[in-house]
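Work Package 3 (structural annotation) set out to generate three-dimensional models for the target panel prioritized at the project kickoff. During this period the team completed the workflow that converts sequence records into discrete structure tokens, so that structures can be stored uniformly alongside our sequence database. As a representative example, we reproduce one entry of 419 residues exactly as it appears in the project archive.
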Amino acid sequence: MKKTIAVFLAFAVFTSTAAALPLSKADEKFLDKVEHDTFLYFWEMADPETGLIADNSKPGAPCSIAATGFGLAAICIGQSRGWITYDEAYKRAFRTLRTFKNTLKSEHGFYYHFVDRKTGQRMWNSEVSSIDTALFLAGALFAAQYFKGTELERLANYLYYRTDWQWMMNQKQMMCMGWDPKNGFLGAYWDWYNEGLIAYILAIGSPTYPIPPESWRKWRRPRGEYGGHRVIYSFFGSLFTYQFSHAWVDFRNIDDGGFNHWQNSIEAALANRKFCMDNSKKYKGYGENGWGLTAGDGPGGYVGYGAMPAEHLVHDGTINPYGMVASIPLVPDIAIGSVKSLYGKYGDKVYGRYGFKAGFNLDKNWWSGIYIGIDQGVSVLMLEDYRTGLVWDYFMRNSCVKSWMELCNIRNKGLEEPQ
């Protein structure tokens, strides 16, 4: 890491916990309800035969392989909390992985972004996606640790080991975002700070097709500040880019050349909230309990909403509640109060069978009636991370994570002996 970046990031604070607050019985009951209801999306919106999980709750929606990755972890969480049995969880997860092995078409181990839930056939002319494959594999590797010593572990490892990350580099220094059967590799690469961290971790740590560790230092780390909060920021400033990788990897004590990704995400959440508070006179939904601007469903469809700092900013008053829900481990004192306020104010307009719905916009009197799989996925994982650290605990046991840290000279300060 360059000295200038290390100096800029001197604000990074390495913490040893998620700073979980002592919860009242009412708050604990509320979080349990939200987590349980969100888990139900993955249990009920999956095809019972293939295990493939819907991209969204609209009738006929295809499977999202990223949502399916989140769903593999959600199923294990549901079992750990007694919402389903061990046998139910194992059979569903195993059936899902078997579908990926035997039914879904792959290119060098990578999968199409959207596929038919029953047949596994490509849908919507979607691309072979590196990040969506990575999120699926993260779920598979989590399940492998959760069901360690079983045939499921061996199947999950097989799917991971056959993924040719070197191919997805396309002979470049950074990983390509995807590949199309007609046009070949896409023109976009994971060359900026964003949710692609999880893909690089899995690729660098691969025991079969590893990419050069140097690629970890190649993507841009733009620096910005908003409201006194200094952030290495993502292009659109969407909050999910600071959350997706954190749902799996316990970054709390990780020293990445003087930079702490966990503290960076805390600062991003605080900047996001400050941006909404500063714009509360312009948009009715914004304020101290109306923030979390992120990519999601909006009045005109799916949009990459975000807040400052950002390179390209899009926002129109739309709030996607999962932005706040998935921030609970980062800023629990703020996020829990905001989520409770949202639930108390708007009730079933924003909340239903599968937890918080995809979005709303008070200025346009628009309320989304759907749920989106990846929104629900990062929500249920981050809630469990905050409450017990279960996802972090199991995922960090994977040898690929340890290899990534060793190869990239990344330290876990929480595991070091006191001086």
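Residues 50 and 160 are 19 Å apart (CA to CA).
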